[in-house]
Every structure is written in structure tokens, then in C-alpha cells.
Amino acid sequence: MPTLQELAVGAVCSLVLLSMAAPVTGAVSTSAPQVDSDSSVGTVSVTDNVSVWERAPLPLRTDPGGPTQVQGMSLFFNVPQQNTGDVPLNKPTLSVYDKGEPITMNFESSLGAGTESFAGDDAQLVAVQLENESSMQRFTDGFTVTEVRDLVQNDSESVFVEVLDDEDGVGSIDQDGRLNVSYTPNESGGYLFMLATVDSGDGFATDGDNLRADGDVTVVGMDGALVHDTSSTVEPVSDRVAPGEEATFHVDSNLETEEVTHGIVVYRQSELVSQRATATLEGDLDRNLSTDQLTVETTLDRVEGTTTTSENATLLGVDLTDERFALPLTLDGLFDVVVTESRSGQGQGQENVLHASMTVVEGGPSGVLAVETGEDWPNGNYRVVHVATAENGSQISTSDGRITVNPSGQSGNGQGSDK
Question: According to the UniProt record, where is the region Disordered (predicted)?
């Protein structure tokens, strides 16, 4: 496996929706962010009549109350050309949402992105459903201004685009620069959401599944979400397991298909949330923004644990045998960080270590999965996340839970006294 400095990590940065790959280059900066309360800091022209506000990745956030929730690293971005300092991404919890249930989103000022200047502007919400499998990778790799341009020019891998406006209850941004909107997804998969202000004309509209702009619009908020068909079931054989023993789980995808890929990861959540990562974007912010401009620095040194994967295993469209390191901003990123950084043995010095292991197997809709723990894993509560996908990626289910690692567990999966 490559070292941390040789791997790529994902992060959201200016004009980047979710995680993007970039080389890791050292320790994380702790410079204080410069609070910019002026929403007129600048825009990037995507097409002749579509622009993206430079702070668009910050003020729009989905409600974190989905049925499956994962807390990750503290994420920051820094644009030296704009003297931003380290600006928090403001997305501490990653949620998966139910198909057929509304996803609530809030647009409001956040550190580094004041929205008051948009008060009174008519708004639209653009919801983009991404193509399963191939574009689930696009969902997790990130969206740049190039992807926004491709959407407008009908050159993206989306399968469905919907525009919500006044008739759908979107309305205008209030006097404080705030707006609450919601969208109900009818299918599972990855979704991109864009909040836009209408500067002239009728704004965004659709022709079938194609997006067009009838007039001038500015994208002022961006976020994404993963939607599953249903919650899976994951039940540990024992809630308590001894360090070095296998934790065994009964899992059921609850999907109506015979061929399912199951992934389960066990990790010490307190260690993950105590880490931070900072994405630094060098160069000009324009329509040609690329991942080559992005460098990510993280405080995480290594993962202490074991990975067990089927040959050519994929989960949520991501090849988990590929040696890339994705920041655990998305569920696949959580699995990715374990598979690429797992190693055994003691480190040297005061390392920042995440104790985590994972198993990914192909099989039927239900079964038994075993995940190894390490002999030197510290005692305490560990988070469990289960993801199941149909063979073609057309169906998704997820769930989460917890177990306790404690020496009182017995060998043979730690079935014994809880004392």
C-alpha cells in the first residue's frame, strides 16, 4: 500500500461540491478564517448566462437527520488567493436519506459565506439525479464548475433533472439571506442540489431530462445527498467483542434482488471526528478549475486494522481495490479510507491513528459477515456502518449501529459476560 503522502484524498473546496482527489502534502494549517459577510465576493462564469458564486459550496446544507448517519473528520478549505484562511465546511454529519421522503435543505450565512446580499432574490432549486454505478463515482469524486457547465450543456451523466420554483414553494430568499427548501427523491442514488437566483428571464428550465437557462442565473448554494431504497438490518452476534477477535454480524439488505454486495466497517468514531483535513486551492477560480489545483493536508497518519474484500469488489460504484484515499466525507469514502490505509503493528511516536476494519463481500441479500479487530485496539464503543448494493447499483440500503470492544469478551466472537 502507498504511504499517506502518496495517496489521494477527497475534500470539498471552493466550487467543489463533495470530495475530490489530490495529493497530501503535510501537516494541516490552523490559520484562522477570514469572515466575509459580503455575498458579492465574486462569481465564476460557467456559460454565457450561468454563473457560480465562489462560496456556493458553503451556505446550502441538507438536514442531517437521515436514518443512517456518520460523523467524519472536521473539514476545512483554504483559498490563499482570496486570503480566506481555513474555512470550516460546515458538514459534520453525513446522512443517507429515504427514497420517497422529503429532504429538507437550509440556505443561510455560514462562516466565510454571508448570504445577506441575496435577500429578496427569486430562487430555484435544481435537483439532479445521477446515473447509478458510473456516476455514483462522479457523485463521490466531486462536482466542479465543469460539471455545472456540463449540466447546462446537456453533457453530464445525469438521468433526471428537476427544477423547483415558486409553484413548488421555493419562493424568495428572505431579508436575512435565508431560505428553507425541500425535495422528495423518487429513486435511490446520488443527488446534486443547486440553489440558484434568477437574475433575468425565467431562470433554469428543463426539456425532458435536459437543463437549460432561460435568462441569467447564479448558483449560490450546492450540496449533495445519497438516497437509499430502504434501511438494511445489521445485528451483532454479540454487542461486546474482545480485542483481536472477530466481530460477527447478521446482515440483511432488505433489497428485492438475489445478488448483493455487502460492505461493513467497524471504526472508533471518537478517533475519526478528532481529526481534521484542509483542502488548499491554488491558482485562479474559473470555469477550467481542476483537481490539479487542489492539495489536501490531513492530521490522520494511518488506520490500524484489517481489510477483507472480494476480488474486484465495488461498493456504491467505487472500486475498493484501487489504491486511492478518499476523505470519509461520503459513505464510500469511509470504506475507502480503511481499505487504503489499513496496516498492522505499532506506529512510532505520537501518531494520529484510526482503529478500523472492514469487510466487503458479494453474495445474496442476507448472510453473516465477520470483521476482524486488532489485538491492540483500545477499549470502548465502535461505530458500525453497513451498506448493501444490488449488482447493477440500481438498489441501495444502509444502516448503522455500534459494538463495544472490551477484554471481557470471549474468543469465538466475544460471546460472554458484559461485565
Answer: 393-419
Q: Which residues contact 48 (CB under 8 A, 6 or more apart)?
A: none
The single residue listed with the C-alpha cell 440500503 is: 397
Backbone angles phi, psi at 65, to 5 degrees: -90, 35
Q: Are residues 255 and 200 in the same domain?
A: no
Which range marks the domain in which residue 21 is found?
4-225
Max avg pLDDT among 90-94, 127-131, 133-137, 237-241: 237-241
Together in a domain, 182 and 98: yes
Alpha-carbon distance 192 to 157, whole Å? 12
Residues near 102 by beta carbon (within 8 Å), at least 6 away in sequence: 182, 183, 184
With respect to residue 410, please indicate whether it lies within any of the assigned structural domains: no
| Distance separating alpha carbons of residues 220 and 57, to the nearest angstrom | 8
- Looking up cell 446550502 gives 60
Q: What is the pLDDT of residues 378-419, one digit of tens each?
A: 999 999 999 999 877 789 999 999 999 997 655 444 333 333
Same domain, 358 and 399: yes
Question: 249 and 181 in one domain?
Answer: no
Is the residue at 412 inside a domain?
no
CA 301 from chain centre, in angstroms, equals 21
How many domains would you assign to the chain?
A: 2
Q: Are residues 234 and 248 both part of a single domain?
A: yes
Question: The whole model's pTM is what?
Answer: 0.79
Query: Does the residue 62 lie in any domain?
Result: yes
Domain contains 413: no
Question: For residue 327, how far is the Cα from the chain centroid?
Answer: 8
Say yes or no: 203 and 255 in one domain.
no
Whether the CB-CB separation of 12 and 223 falls below 8 Å is answered with no
Q: Are residues 13 and 160 in the same domain?
A: yes
The owner of cell 442514488 is: 189
Query: E strand or H helix at 279, and its extent?
Result: strand 276-281
Distance between CA atoms of residues 378 and 380, nearest Å: 7
d(CA 119, CA 289) in angstroms, rounded, equals: 28
CA gyration radius, the chain: 22
Contact between residue 273 and residue 390 where contact means Cβ atoms under 8 Å apart: no
Q: Are residues 186 and 324 in the same domain?
A: no
d(Cα 12, Cα 60) in Å, to the nearest integer? 13
DSSP state string for 121-137: -BEEEEEEEEPTTHHHH
